[in-house]
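Q: Sequence in, structure out?
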Amino acid sequence: MPPEWSSCPPELLLVVDRSSALPLRAQVEHGLRDAIRTARVRVGERLPSSRELARTLGVSRGLVQECYAQLQAEGYLVTRAGSATRVAAGAAAPPASTQPHRTASRLVADFRWGVPDLAGFPLQDWLWATREAARAMPSADLDYGDPRGSRALREVLAGYLRRVRAAAADPEHILVCNGYAQGVGLALHVLAAGGAGTVAFEDPGSPATVRACATAAGLRAVPVPVDEHGIDVRALAATGARAVVVTPAHQWPTGVALAPKRRLALVEWARDQDAVIIEDDYDAEFRYDREPVGALQGLAPDRVISLGTVSKSLAPALRIGWMICPPALTDALAEHKNRSDRGTPTLDQLALARLIESGRFDRHLRRMRATYATRRTALLAALAEHAPGLPVTGLAAGFHAVAHLPADADEHHVVSAARERSVGIYGMSTCRASDAAAPARIVLGFGNVGERAVAEGIAAIGHLLTGRP
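A: Exactly. Output:
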């Protein structure tokens, strides 16, 4: 569909050479034909008015009108009384395509992890917050601003994180970033510059992200096993790492919370080794068994970089996150952030601040907790009916569960067979540092799957999960 330019005439880049022996009219005609033939302007798109194009090229309007008339006679253009001049059907070259168009098969249910309820995004509240932020925003905020981010958002975040996550949050030491991956990348670059050579990460966990960020920072990344109490701190100490990436509130993907003794041991390790803990506080707002576990950063503000985002609480597309930084690292992190991208969009930051301080963010979280709790119940009911006896863990918080397949199950085969039945499921092998598919586990995300789709999807694959024919 060609773009519409409303009442504002579109621009078109044409070049005329007044030192050329070729007449100006011939140059303009050639430029217009070339733009149409090469699909710089597509079928149905408007051309600039003769007056506007003449002004842009510094030629007479009559010359441009003659060029338009000639190209209309040749079939390149079409005009109607009271309407703009447009490219005629069949005049422009079709867009190049090396691959046939394929329509993605529709899934009955897609249990993709890490995706919140996208339809539940509070659009009206976000529009309201954006309007309010834009209305009150001083013109000075349109400048690049503080590399740490908007002061208004940092103050609101500090209060929110102290209240909800029991964090030791100070606006001076909060850095706004563009999501989790950027936060980890910034942290690892600064730590590498400070002499760190190795970063550890949980296994299973997020090996692809951590390894990519570590490689970019020039660090070696090593996995550390996770058990029912969280990361194995003794194994961590044996790696010689000076940094570790952990998910203490709700371990990804196993779902366990880091045990109190392990929390204390991890902080002690960081102090003994002069190391830094990078805490991914990714979906701690959504717990069902008890009150949310406080952020690890509250125990050791000088040793923990705590990362949070709105990717799970609102939507990944917003690309807004934050880092609660140790005071000794704040300036270096802010400087590197400034060099990396000159800052996170200010209007979005101000809108988020307005959303939180108005209470609408808390209201949205309460609504989504109820939604995810209902879907969690629907998932358990469907598994009990169609995959009886299947062990399921990781459901104390967040919006994913881990299904433990039978010992002889082939994880890859189960995933492929489910796809043939139009159900998307995903194995834990991609969360393991070794990519091992055993023991076979399926991570079932239900954040973006409605109750009806949950029931239909599990009904279609229940026998695959339990190994029944």
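The radius of gyration is 28 Å.
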